[in-house]
Amino acid sequence: MSASGAHGRTAETSHVAGAVAAEEDLRALFGRSSAVFATVSGPGHVVERANPAFHAAFGVGRTGLALADVLPDVRDRGFLDLLDEVRRTGEARTDRDVRVELGSGPQAREAFFDLTCEPRRDAAGDVLGVRVIGVETTSVKHSQRLMAEHRVLLEQIARQAPLAEVLDGMARCIEELVPRELFVSVLLADPDGLHLRHGAAPSLPAFYNEAIDGIATGEGVGSCGTAAHRREPVIVTDIATDPFWDDFRDLAVKAGLGACWSTPILARDGGLLGTFAMYHRVPRVPQEIDLAIIRVFAGTAALAIERHHNELARQAAEARAEAAREALAETARAERELRAEAERRADAAAELAAQMRAAAAAHAQTPRPERCQLGGRTGCAAPAELKVADSWGDAAWGCSRHVEEVLIHVPSVFIAGEELGGLSAYLNR
Ligand SMILES: [Zn+2]
């Protein structure tokens, strides 16, 4: 091992140690954001050293590969342009929020980095390559945007905007927030939890929403029916091959849908409120940001739906209370009327009793005439044999023929035996 070689390695090692320390600082500074570090050399930016975070983020895998070949998306050359420029000018540069397309196919994702690139020089001062120190800011950027949108939704929910408006706004904001084309769907569970109704899906075709409206929850009923049934997320990354979609595949193809990730929307007591789904045109695997969006917005949807249910329950309770108040007032009215009626009856009974007392007294005082009093205008010469009376106080003596006639024709009449002295004798005993 030559002296110069040993010297070079020592210098490189100290750079790495310094970078690791910087990485620690940056990690502390940015919390959970991971710092990436790499040294590259030559015009193709061949990776000589890199920390695991760099390999993981850029999908390089091993040293000795040229970044110019590895980074897939030539349209987003931000990072490579930066490396080229530092190499050309020999001056360090820091760029914020450099957009990098990472991975490919279903695993592809957009990422943002704050990147500092410094030239590496040889003893003569010529630029050998570039040292890269970066911090991924993707989650920070996304979470900032997410939180801003989330706040707007919470304000809407707080001022009791109609549920359909809140869910529709939520779906649209997510579709706008995420850089890739996706469609958001919210289905609402029936109270029995056995069927799902259309809630919001502003960007899915109307024929699709109509076909899905009212589907049963159950194992294998697409992503949403299954997620609702299992009470856990169901990630279908490829509708074309997933058995859960056997019954809905033709419909999905017609709507141009390739993937559907659905998560149940649950109430605080664990009850099923609905499902929150993200659809993609092509097969896709959810990334960290997707999972974060699903977590945040399924929770927000739960809040909106629960609040809506509470509002409906409050309105129903108010209507019930109003009905109860009316029934109570009606009962009080009926009670007053019954009391008045009872008093009227008591008065009438008292009056009747007084009349009867008077009648009894009158009977007792009527002296027995010699002749029948029931002969009418022509009179009757027959002797008075029997006394008749009615409850209204009238009394008369008559012959047996006329008494019989009166008894037949006047319903309230009775024969008043003189010796009984009427009711007054009883009342005054
Ligand atoms: Zn007579």
What does this structure look like?
By secondary structure, this protein is of the alpha+beta class. It folds into 3 domains: 3-136, 2-Layer Sandwich (Beta-Lactamase), CATH 3.30.450; 142-315, Beta-Lactamase; 366-427, no CATH class. Helix content is 47%, strand content 21%. It is built from 12 helices and 14 strands. The protein has helices spanning 3-29, 52-58, 67-70, 78-89, 138-158, 163-177, 206-212, 222-230, 249-255, 288-365, 400-409, 422-427, and strands spanning 35-41, 46-50, 93-102, 109-121, 127-136, 183-189, 195-200, 215-216, 234-236, 259-266, 272-280, 386-389, 395-398, 414-415. The strands form 3 sheets. It has a 6-stranded antiparallel sheet, with helices on both faces. A 5-stranded antiparallel sheet has the order 2-1-5-4-3, sandwiched between helices. It has a 3-stranded antiparallel sheet with strand order 13-12-14. α5 (138-158) runs antiparallel to α6, α5 runs parallel beside α10 and α6 (163-177) packs antiparallel against α10. The longest helix is centred in the last third of the chain and has 78 residues, at 288-365. The termini are far apart. Mean pLDDT is 82; it is low at 1-32. Bound molecules: zinc ion. Zinc ion (ZN) binds next to α11.
